[in-house]
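Forum: Protein Structure Q&A
Topic: Joint prediction for protein chains with partners

I've read a bunch of threads here and the consensus seems to be that you should model interacting components together rather than docking separate models afterwards. I'd like to see that in practice. Below is the full input, 289 residues plus whatever partners are listed. Could one of the regulars post the assembled result?
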Amino acid sequence: MTEIDDKMLKQFFNDNKNEVEDNGFSERVMSHLPGKAQRLAKLWTLISFLLAITLFVILDGFQIIAGILRNVFVSLVQNGAENVDPKSLLIALIVLVVIGIRKACSIA
Amino acid sequence: MSQLNDISLVAQVVVFKNTKAFDELVKKYQSPIRRFFLNLTCGDSELSDDLAQDTFIKAYTNIASFKNLSSFSTWLYRIAYNIFYDYIRSRKETNDLDAREVDAISSVEQDNLGQKMDVYQSLKTLKEIERTCITLFYMEDVSIEKIAGITGCPVGTVKSHLSRGKEKLANYLNKNGYDRN
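Posted by a regular:
Agreed with the consensus. Here's the joint model:
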């Protein structure tokens, strides 16, 4: 390996060293980055949640739920209050609360 | 200055998940990384772009592990080198062919390459490791010490690969009448 050969190789590679044009490459890379799909999914969830809340308020959701609960309570009192076991009601309430907390934790 | 700028961009990606900062890094390094792969694959532009894309995605997912012990470009070349060797290994496993045959098969001839074709043809005469060292040393102006860091080979081994590669290339160019002036 002579010095002349070394110079020749340097010259050869310098002659053929060109910049590669981007031509949309960077954009393709950015669109394939992991986490982008997750961010979009989170954004959609947030938009859907806000939409649901808005519709709930506009359509008077609180009033509807209060009416249903009132009806259930009234029918419960009228049709069989004497047969209701307070212990069973308490257990059902605890179970519902536990399920609710677990669900809230899993969403968070 | 450039290295400081790279560190600042990396910090923005790590701390704030700032994708615009990473976009700047991709735009800055896409040319040398794609050129590196073009030389390693002897001119297969489609394969080069796929490998370069994998390199940047791997860099993004592992950017927190960049410890600034080397420059960002050296770290990126190391990822690119590993991606290329993973590709070569996977091709060897599936095709059970010698890697040089794989290279010859996968290289796609392109239009308007002109003298470029000579570069890729000449690089085909080298083993992958020699091609890696020669490309980094002559085309990307990377020092021997940094090449050793990128390839994980001792400095002496890199020097041997460079020496063998230079000899083969000089013979090829002399045989093909390359004008040294």
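Chain B has one domain: 2-175.
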